[in-house]
Amino acid sequence: MQIEERRTTTLRAKVADSQLGFGKYFSDHMFLMNYENGKWLRPRIEPYGPISLEPGACALHYAQCMFEGQKVFRGTDGVIRFFRPHFHAERMAKGAERLCMPPVPKEMYLEAVKRLVRFDADWVPKSRGSALYLRPTLIATESYLGVRPAEKYLFFVISSPVGAYYAEGLNPVRIWVEEDYIRAAPGGLGAVKAGANYAASLSAFVAAKARGFAQVLWLDALTKSQVEEVGTMNVFFRFK
Q1: Total Cβ atoms within 10 A of residue 145
Q2: Chain centroid to CA 134
Q3: Residue 87 buriedness (CB in 10 A; 0-12 / 13-18 / 19+)
Q4: CB within 8 A of 109, min separation 6: which ones?
Q5: Which of 3, 10, 40, 116 has the smallest set of CB atoms within 10 Å of its CB?
Q6: Helices 85-98 and 106-119 meet at what angle, rounded to 10?
Q7: Catalytic site includes residue 193
Q8: Candidate list 24, 193, 224, 240, residue with the active-site label
Q9: What's the Cα-to-Cα distance from 236 to each of 146, 217, 227, rounded to whole Å?
Q10: DSSP 8-state assignment for residue 22
Q11: pLDDT tens profile 194-235
């Protein structure tokens, strides 16, 4: 894949690893690639900045949009390592098919994230518990108001140096068991990192936050008696 490269002339300010938090800061560059007429076109790396969309873009009206989330770590030996990128590429491809979007070929996905990290290698933090978080994203860009899959798309990747997700750091957090709202239903989009899934989860999260809890534990949609997942982290149970 031939990737166009354009470096920024104005570097973004960095902060200390201890002040990172999650998702508040972004690196200097981003990767972009367009889809038209059945082909992926113009793979490129350019300075991080606004993306132009027409008001009629299908992503804005019918939520044809999804993302991935993966991390890159700098070891104590200084070497930068990806955590299972092939699995992320496969999950995004499966999610795209569920949303009637063109999957990004695995080889293109992997090359995109690797080249972007190489471009912004200085942004990979060094402290224990920190990482460079990658956010590959796929959105429908065709301006069309009929209800059908779009014919034009944009795949882009941005990155953000991050620390602990929760204010509690690596300490235990309080979890609210949600018994009214549901996170996913059989036959729905629960297995896809679609933007609509996260929008639907916000009401329960805001209510849990107001009660002093850090996150929501979701129950199954049919009986509300079985554990489904926790919103933004894995959950495990130890008995006895």
Answers
A1: 8
A2: 7
A3: exposed
A4: 85, 88, 89, 92, 93, 136
A5: 10
A6: 130
A7: yes
A8: 193
A9: 44, 11, 10
A10: S
A11: 999 999 999 999 999 999 999 999 999 999 999 999 988 888
